[in-house]
Design a protein that fits this description.
By secondary structure, this protein is an alpha+beta fold. Among the domains are: 130 residues, no CATH class; 115 residues, Rieske [2Fe-2S] iron-sulphur domain (Rieske Iron-sulfur Protein, 3-layer Sandwich), CATH 2.102.10. The protein is 27% helix and 18% strand. The protein contains 14 helices and 21 strands. The strands form six sheets. Strands 12-21-18-17-16-15-14 form a seven-stranded antiparallel beta sheet, sandwiched between helices. The N terminus and C terminus are likely disordered. Bound molecules: FE2/S2 (inorganic) cluster and fe (ii) ion (FE2).
Length: 493
């Protein structure tokens, strides 16, 4: 079934949806037809507002129950309400403000007036985020609390903590956390703050150190690797030294697909649960046995890339492939774009794009096509497929035959984002695979530069007063048919 560009009220109803007074499409019950899945995918960053899991259709059921969408279909999807709860509320307020009651008859509470007001709102306020969500410092501040404190943040990889006593510090939701490998092999997470006078326990530069305990550099309070307080110098003279109560502030840690995530929310649903489908889909690429390639680390701020765009612009760009044919000529020479699929789920989206057999006109790309080969652990079917995953809200994973790129998009103010990340590969790859990896990383740099310029342009455009209501955010701008392929946006040059 082809999607209509705009859902009629009838089709909305048939699909178990309705429209709210503002004309947005809202879910009444689980969607039962394919387009809804695409719309859910279109809600990407703002998936925070979607509480129900997405159900797949019978057309192209994915192993995890999702729906695979091809670019043309996806482009025609209309987004559902695609804002986080805070943004959603603000949107309602802004729309109310835009339609003051006296514009249609102040204090007139007749049903006819209500209908007129409702229709006017519906017609004049198309669904989609407002530019304020991308340009408002207050919104950016609220996102720290409502999104980043409530979600899992990518902070590293198992290989970053090779032995007991290994540790590193990483940013999470405006704080710094410390992850430590314990004696029992597990990983503990704490705020990187001493319980005594609040000194920072570990700097970035000290993150490579291996110590048998956590010792504050200020007065020497010492903690076990699990964060419990061992003791303090001259402790017997400190009457209030209640050791059991003075351990480090704990932070939740989860190892998923070999990557380490931290969350400040004690109630955060484990990724192993919310993203269970990824284990089957891409688990063979991952694991604690991967080794890092190059000098970058996810938790490190050294040489970190910064892009001049709100973090959501960067993530949006990753999630929509509508721009690929125009913005990324190199990718278009490599991609079998028409067979680019997206499998949206409630907690993540998985993209797959097969590579073309036709040799590229570009020598580097052509050589890559010839050399592309799967690293150990992958099968022949993975040789000519690139896969991408976005775990909401801001973790992005690229899976290539020759390497994995894990990165995240961190807000840096309301108009900037930093992109920490690292390349990984499985040991034992042959010379051919390693050479292909180098070529692939180079190709990714080209894409990165193209995307960096584009997201900066979007941010500048969004910052232009008077453009908020004119933005077209129909499904074509949120095509789940492809990522930007630019997953490699991150490492700094
Ligand atoms: S601040 Fe850490 S021991 Fe005093
Ligand atoms: Fe892109």
């Amino acid at each position: 079934m082809r999607w209509s560009h705009t859902l009629t009220n009838q089709s909305v109803s048939q699909q178990g949806l309705g429209r709210d007074p503002y004309g947005r499409i809202v879910t009444r019950r689980f969607p039962r037809r394919e387009p809804l899945t695409g719309q859910r995918q279109a809600s990407t960053v703002a998936n925070q507002s979607v509480s129900q899991p997405v159900r797949g259709s019978a057309r192209c059921p994915a192993p995890t129950g999702g729906t695979r969408l091809r670019p043309r279909e996806a482009e025609q999807a209309e987004p559902l309400a695609c804002l986080p709860p805070s943004a959603h509320t603000q949107q309602l307020q802004e729309r109310d403000h835009a339609f003051p009651s006296d514009s249609v008859g102040h204090h007139d509470s007749s049903a006819a007036t209500t209908r007129v007001l409702t229709q006017a709102r519906a017609q004049a306020a198309p669904p989609g985020p407002r530019r304020g969500y991308y340009t408002d410092p207050a919104t950016a501040a609220a996102e720290q609390q409502r999104i980043f404190e409530k979600s899992w943040q990518l902070v590293g990889h198992e290989s970053d903590l090779p032995v007991a006593g290994s540790r590193f510090a990483a940013p999470v939701a405006g704080r710094e956390v410390q992850l430590v490998r314990r004696e029992d092999g597990g990983v503990s997470g704490h705020l990187n703050v001493c319980r005594h006078r609040g000194a920072q326990l570990l700097t970035q530069a000290e993150s490579k150190q291996v110590e048998p305990a956590i010792r504050c550099p200020y007065h020497g309070w010492t903690y076990h690797l699990d964060g419990t307080l061992v003791g303090a110098p001259e402790g017997r003279q400190i009457p209030c030294l209640d050791k059991p109560r003075l351990g480090l502030f704990p932070v939740r840690v989860e190892s998923f697909l070999g990557f380490l995530f931290a969350s400040l929310d004690p109630d955060a649903v484990p990724l192993a649960e919310s993203c269970a489908g990824l284990v089957e889909a891409v688990g063979r690429y991952c694991g604690p046995d991967l080794t890092v390639v190059g000098k970058h680390r996810i938790h490190s701020s050294e040489n970190i890339e910064r892009q001049n765009a709100n973090w959501k612009v960067v993530v949006d760009n990753f999630l929509e492939g509508y721009h690929v044919p125009v913005a990324h000529p190199g990718l278009m020479r490599l991609f079998d774009y028409q067979n680019y699929t997206a499998e949206p789920q409630s907690a993540y989206t998985l993209f797959e794009v097969p590579l073309r057999e036709k040799p590229s006109s570009n020598p580097t790309e052509r050589l890559y096509q010839r050399l592309a080969s799967p690293m150990p652990g992958l099968g022949e079917a993975d040789r000519r497929v690139w896969r991408y995953v976005a775990i909401y809200p801001n973790t992005l994973l690229d899976f290539y035959p020759d390497h994995v790129l894990a990165w995240s998009v961190l807000p840096d103010g309301h108009d900037g984002a930093t992109l920490p990340g690292a390349y990984y590969a499985r040991p034992g790859a042959g010379l051919r695979t390693r050479l292909a990896r180098r070529l692939n990383i180079h190709i990714g740099w080209v894409t990165n530069d193209e995307d960096a310029e584009l997201v900066a342009r979007v941010q500048r455009g969004l910052s232009t007063p008077g453009t908020s209501r004119d933005r077209c955010r129909t499904g074509r701008t949120r095509s789940p048919g492809s990522t930007n392929g630019s997953g490699r946006t991150w490492p700094a040059r």
